[in-house]
Amino acid sequence: MAGRTRGLFGGTFDPPHAGHVAAVRATLADAALDELVVTVAADPWLKGDPPSAPGWARLAMAEAAFSSIDRVVVSDLELRRGGPTYTIDTVEALLAEAPGDRIVVVLGADAAASLGSWHRAGDLAALVEIAVVPRPGVEATPPEEFSAHMVLMEEVDLSSTSVRAALERGEDPRGLLPEAVVRLVLAHRLYAQ
Length: 193
Ligand code: ATP
Ligand code: MG
Prior knowledge:
By secondary structure, the protein is of the alpha/beta class. Helix content is 37%, strand content 17%. The protein has one domain: Rossmann fold, CATH 3.40.50.620. The longest helix is centred in the N-terminal third of the chain and has 13 residues. The model has no long low-confidence stretch (mean pLDDT 96).
């Protein structure tokens, strides 16, 4: 099969919020992707703390948030692999399935700025292109070795950390999270005190 262009959008999704959904939609509108694979990290080792919600719940929330969007596939590949989640491992797994594919790693400006400290960053730069989504207060300056494209998008001032804090204060998450994610959060009392 002729090579496709596949996007890869990885995250902790603890929980997935309106900023993530906007990033996915803007990237699909802006970059010519045949498919966008959304992966849920097992152990986001660059973060100080482990995720609040367990992997199964973050996967269910990611499915609820993204799988109704055309061309998006939510994958549990990183959760099944377990251990520290290195994007290079995921990219190599995608390329092992389909060696002719072009891979575009989609990431927010904050993640783009940290790329240089990712595991095997040089190997990653040689294998993928990146698409950088704007985030308020962060300049989108990926390391030079990466071939980068800036996605056109209105910034969304939202993070999972701020959503968890709002939930812990007992605030209504409607508007911050997709409706289907709100239902899962409430049904499983995911971030309640
Ligand atoms: P946390 O506060 O726990 O770090 P987060 O909101 O940053 O959560 P992550 O799961 O860490 O979410 O991020 C996954 C990807 O989504 C990263 O590439 C991140 O830069 C991007 N991202 C997260 N929030 C936004 C946003 N509001 N706008 C654009 N990109 C975002
Ligand atoms: Mg983050």
